[in-house]
Amino acid sequence: MSPVFSHGMLRLYLLKLLDESPRHGYDVIRLLEDRFMGLYAPSPGTIYPRLQRLEAEGLVTQSQEGGRKVYQITEAGREELRRRQDELDHLEAEIRSSVHYLASEIREEVRGTVHDLKQELKQAAREIRRQQRHENRSRRDWHDADAAAPRVERRLRDLLTGTDQLLHRAHLTEAQIRECAAILDETFERIREVLRDKR
Amino acid sequence: MATWTIDEPRKLTFDTVRRLRVRTVAGGIAVVGTDDRPTLEVSELDGPPLWVRHEDGELEVAYERPGWPGPFGWLIGRHRRQVAVISLAVPRDCEVDLGVVASGLMVSGLRAPLVARTVSGEITLAGCSGQVEAQTVSGAVQAHGVAGDLWAHTVSGDLTLVEGGGTVGARTISGTVTLDVSTPGAGDIRVTTVSGDVTIRLPHASDLQVQVQSTSGQVASAFDELHREGRPALRSIRGRLGAGTGRLQANTTSGHVALLRREPEVRESP
User: B110-158 pLDDT, tens per residue?
Assistant: First the structure.
C-alpha cells in the first residue's frame, strides 16, 4: 500500500462520506465516482479493504442490515476528520479548480490499486509454482518406482518357484504349514504397508 | 487558426477539441475526459516556451522548434531544461496522441482511440474504453479498467492490467506482465516476454482457448481442465476453458508463467 493512501485524500474522503450518513459499501463507491467527476470508478476491491482498515483503526464501525454491511463513523473518526478539515477543504477546492490536481489524484489511486494487485498475484503465482513443482517431483518419483517394479516381480517369482520346490521335497506337518502361511501373510502385509506409504 | 506561445504557467480553454496531439520532453502529461469545456493547464514550465495551436477541432501542444536535436542531442543534455507539466481536460470522444521523452503519462476517462508513447516514463491508464496503444522503454504501464483493446509494449518496464476487459496484446523484453482479467469471454489475450514473468488471473468460469509456453521457465496453472504437454511437464499447457470463445496465448523464453483462478463471484447486492 502506498503511503499516499493510508494518510491521504481517499481515506479522509471515506470518513467524510460516512460522516454525512451511515452508508453501504456500494453507496460509498458510487459517491466516490461522483467525486472523481465520473472519470474513475474505484472498484470494490479497492474500497472494501480500506473500509476494513479504518474499522481496524477504530474510526468506523460496521453492522449488518438486511444482509448488507453498513459502515458508520465513530467519535474517533469524527475527531480525525475535524483535525484535518482544513486539509480536506483545501484539497477539495483544488480538485474542483485544477485538472492537474484531479489527474494526480487519479494517478495515485490507480498506482495504489495496481501495486496491491501486483503483490497479491505475485504471491499467488509463487505459491502455485511451488505447489506444482512439488507435485511434479512426486510424480517423477512414482515413475522411478514403475521402473523398479520388475525387480520386485522377479524376486516374487524366485520366491514362488523356490518355495514350490521345497514343498515337494518334504512331507509337511500341520504346524509347518501354519507357520509358512503366517510368514507369507506377514510379508504381504508389510509390502502393502510400504507401498501405501509411497503413494 | 489560433496559436499561443506559452512561457509561464497558465490556463487556456477552447470551444471544441476533437483531436489532441502533444509532444514534449520532460515534466508530465495528464489527460482526463470531461463533459465541461476543454482546458489546457500548464502548471510548470522550465526551458523554452511551449507552442499551442488550435484549428478546426485539432489541438496541438509542442515546442516551437520541435525538430530533431541531432543524433547526439541527448548527450549535450539539451532536453534537461525542457520541463513542462501539462494537464488537459478534453471531451471523452477526443482522439488523443501523446509523445514524451522522459516523463510520465496519465490518461483517464476517454472513449476514443489513444496513443501514448514515452521513453523512460510510466504510463497510467484509468477507465479508457477506446483502443489504446501504450509504448514505453523503461517505464511501467499500469492500467485500471481499460475496457477497450489494449496494445502495450515495453522493453524493461512492468506491465499491469487490473480489471481488463477486451483484447490485450502485451509485449515486453524483461518486464513482468500481470493481468487480472474480469470478463469471462475476454477477447484475444496475447502475451510475449523474453525474460519477464507472466501472471494472469482469470475469472472462475472463463471461455478461453488457452495456449501457454515457456522455453526454460516454469508454467503453472490453477485450472485442472488444462493439460500439460511434453516432458519435463512444466513448460507448456494447452486446452479449453468453458466454451473457448476467446483466446489466451502466452509465450516466454525464460520467464515463469502462472495462470491463476479467481474465487467464484460473490456479489454484494447493491
Answer: 999 999 999 999 999 998 889 999 999 999 999 998 888 999 999 999 9
Across the interface, whether the CB atoms of B34 and A37 are under 8 A apart is answered: yes
Range of the domain at B205: 122-270
Neighbours of A185 (CB within 10 A): 10
Is A61 in CB contact (< 8 Å) with chain B?
no
For residues B229 and B184, membership in a common domain is answered with yes
Which residue type is seen at A7?
Answer: H
The owner of cell 501373510 is A185
Architecture of domain A3-97: Orthogonal Bundle (1.10)
Mutate to test the interface with A, among B35, B88, B160 (most CBs of A within 10 A): B160
> Model confidence at B178, in pLDDT bands (50, 70, 90)?
very high
